[in-house]
Amino acid sequence: MDILVSIFSDYGYVAVFLILLLCGFGLPIPEDITLVAGGIISGLGYANVHTMFFVCMAGVLIGDGTMFMLGHIFGQRILGFAPIRRIVTPQRFAQVQEKFVKYGNWVLFVARFLPGLRSPIFISAGMSRRISIWRFLIMDGLAACISVPIWVYLGDYGAYNRGWLLHMIKRGQTGIYLLIAIGACVLLFLYFRHKSKKKQQK
Asked: Residue ranges per domain, the chain?
């Protein structure tokens, strides 16, 4: 995180935007740490935190949207590109399609909180061509409206207290994963109840 803070302090909003864009393309840099680092430089006086929030939202949504559109435009042909083929294996693509059938649009919402799985899910969603770009942006945007402000404003608030900040990041990550687990349980419950009702009607 210190390296990101140093880079962002020197190059400001442009650096934050580009790193988040690359995160959307599958770059192995934790997105939450990038968002926190953007918040930290705001707290240190190198940027305005509210402007930073909008820059981060733009970087996140454009990165995610680009991966979705690549899948949507090129379809299965995109798997001919080696870096994408490593991200979206045939097995992973089949798993994503199965989850879309079971849980629908909520897969896109939950994907935002799953580091390492966002890109495969977004590309696969585009490849399926079952989802419009507007529906994708709504679901992804709703999730981003939860995660982005939490990390950016947390970084801004704890800029001068890194020990406390790191502790809160760990707690925040745990809390998000807990919420995802609860949400997954609720979705499973609704799915099986719906399936049970269908059987009874037959």
From this structure: 2-201
